[in-house]
Amino acid sequence: MNVTIYHNPACGTSRNTLAMIRNAGIEPEVIEYLQNPPSREQLVKMIADAGLTVRGAIREKGTPYAELGLDNPDLTDEQLLDAMLETPILINRPFVVTPMGTRLARPSEVVLDILPDTHKGPFAKEDGEQVLDSEGRRLV
């Protein structure tokens, strides 16, 4: 199965999501989007395929969101996309694309909705929260 994750290794949610993908026996294409941001077309498609609005795909925490005035409700989707592409840290993460769908994996276990049921045993997040039981069945 072809899986792509737009990943930030400094983000715990992104690391947990990547680990869940690998727990399913899949080695995804890992794109560190801060160094290699998606194209405008890819970003627009991911946002739409995930069922989000452009505003819903912006990361506010730990970014220059407020300083850039992106909380202004009069800004258009095009202006918001321009900001996200110019400053990729504004793209919320991790986006995961599979043949079963696209999700913004926040919380990380949302990725399970678009992965096959091929998990290899239990899985716990970095904080210890158990997500899969010993049989690889979803707990949350």
Question: What does this entry look like structurally?
Answer:
This protein has 3 helices and 6 strands, in the order βαβααββββ. It has helices spanning 12-23, 40-49, 77-86, and strands spanning 4-7, 29-32, 95-98, 101-104, 123-124, 130-132. The chain has a 4-stranded mixed beta sheet, with helices on both faces. It has a two-stranded antiparallel ribbon with strand order 5-6. The longest helix has 12 residues, at 12-23. The protein is elongated and about 50 Å long.
**SS-based structural class?**
alpha+beta
What shape does the CA trace take?
elongated
- Straight-line N-to-C gap: 24 Å
- The total strand number stands at 6
State the low-pLDDT regions, or none: none
Largest sheet: 4 strands, mixed
What is the share of helical residues? 10-25%
- Proportion in β-strands: 15-25%
Mean pLDDT reading: 96
Order of the strands making up the biggest sheet: 2-1-3-4
Order of helices and strands: EHEHHEEEE
In short:
With 140 residues, the chain is α+β, with helices and mostly antiparallel strands.
Properties at a glance:
single chain; alpha+beta; four-stranded mixed beta sheet; two-stranded antiparallel ribbon; 3 helices; 6 strands
Write the layout of secondary structure elements.
Layout: E1 4-7, H1 12-23, E2 29-32, H2 40-49, H3 77-86, E3 95-98, E4 101-104, E5 123-124, E6 130-132
Parallel strand pairs: 1-2
Antiparallel strand pairs: 1-3, 3-4, 5-6
